[in-house]
Specification:
alpha+beta, about 15% helix
C-alpha cells in the first residue's frame, strides 16, 4: 500500500513539473508574440488602381489640428509607401529620426500610442488624412541598458489600412476650403524655393492687347500647396480675364505652358470649365 502511495505522489510531482514548464514556455511565447521590432504598414486604395506613393505620418493621440485647412508641423515622418502600398517601419534607434524619442515626448495615459495618418505626397501638413482614425500601440523596452537599440517595440507585427484618395466633398483646395475657383501651379523639375503672384487681369477691349489693368490675384506658395484661391467676394460674375504670373521677388512676368491662358465666369461667378486650373511653369 505504501509503495502505491509513493508511486502516486511521484507521478503527481512529475506531471506538475511538466505542466509548469509548459506554462512557462507558453508565457514566453505570448510575450514574444506581443512585441515586434518592425511594423509592417499595408495600405489599400479603395478608389484607384495604384497603391503606392502615399506618405505615412505619426502624431501623438489627439494632437492633430483638425480645423479645415489648418497645417500640422510636429508630426513624425514622412515615410513613403512602395508600389504595393507598403512601408516597413523599423523601430531601431535612428539618430536623425527616432520614433522612441518622439514617443517619449508624449504625455498622459496615451503616451505609448500614436495616431497614424496616410496622406498624398502633396499633403505634407496633414490637412486631409485619407484613412479613418488609426491608433498604433507601442511597448517600452524594459531594459537596464543605457542606450538600447530598441527603446520601444510595436504591439502588432503588421497593420492593414484602407484609404480613399479624394478631397472632402465640395472642396477644391485643402488650404482654402471656401474657394470657388483655384489656379494650381505645377513644376516639371525641382520645386523652387520662391513664391509667385498669380493674377487674373480682366479683359479691356479699349487696350491694344485686350488686357486691362484691373486684376484680382494672390500669392502662391509651397506652404499652400501652390493653390491660388478665388472667392465669390472677388466679383467674378460675367467676366473674362488673362492669367498673369509674376515672380514675387523680382516682379518679372513668368511664362508658362500655353501662355497666355484666359478664364471666364458665368453670371453667377462660377468658372466656365475646370474649377481647378493647373498651370505648369517652364
Amino acid at each position: 500500500m505504501l509503495k502505491k502511495i509513493l508511486t502516486l505522489l511521484l507521478l503527481i510531482l512529475f506531471v506538475n513539473g511538466c505542466g509548469s514548464g509548459a506554462n512557462q514556455k507558453n508565457t514566453e511565447n505570448v510575450k514574444q508574440e506581443e512585441k515586434y521590432d518592425k511594423l509592417v504598414i499595408k495600405t489599400k486604395v479603395t478608389n484607384k488602381e495604384e497603391n503606392g506613393g502615399y506618405l505615412v505620418y505619426f502624431m501623438h493621440v489627439g494632437e492633430r489640428r483638425e480645423e479645415a485647412g489648418e497645417a500640422n508641423q510636429s508630426a513624425f515622418g514622412p515615410f513613403e509607401t512602395d508600389d504595393n502600398g507598403e512601408y516597413i517601419l523599423d523601430l531601431k534607434f535612428n539618430f536623425n529620426n527616432d520614433i522612441g524619442t518622439y514617443l517619449k515626448s508624449g504625455e498622459g495615459k496615451e503616451k505609448n500610442k500614436l495616431e497614424m495618418f496616410i496622406v498624398t505626397r502633396e499633403d505634407i501638413y496633414i490637412r486631409n488624412p485619407l484613412n479613418k482614425k488609426t491608433i498604433v500601440e507601442f511597448i517600452p523596452n524594459e531594459t537596464d541598458e543605457p542606450y538600447p537599440d530598441y527603446s520601444y517595440y510595436s504591439k502588432k507585427k503588421e497593420i492593414e489600412v484602407s484609404i480613399t484618395d479624394k478631397y472632402p466633398e465640395g472642396v477644391l483646395s485643402l488650404t482654402f476650403q471656401d474657394s470657388i475657383f483655384v489656379i494650381k501651379l505645377a513644376f516639371d523639375e525641382e520645386i523652387p524655393q520662391k513664391s509667385y503672384e498669380v493674377s487674373i487681369f480682366w479683359s479691356d477691349p479699349s487696350k491694344p492687347s485686350g488686357i486691362g489693368t484691373i486684376r484680382v490675384g494672390r500669392i502662391s506658395r509651397a506652404f499652400q500647396y501652390w493653390d491660388t484661391p478665388f472667392y465669390k467676394s472677388d466679383n467674378l460674375a460675367s467676366k473674362t480675364g488673362t492669367i498673369i504670373i509674376k515672380d514675387f521677388d523680382t516682379n518679372e512676368t513668368v511664362e508658362y505652358e500655353d501662355y497666355p491662358k484666359t478664364v471666364s465666369f458665368d453670371k453667377d461667378g462660377n468658372p466656365i470649365g475646370d474649377k481647378v486650373l493647373k498651370i505648369k511653369l517652364r
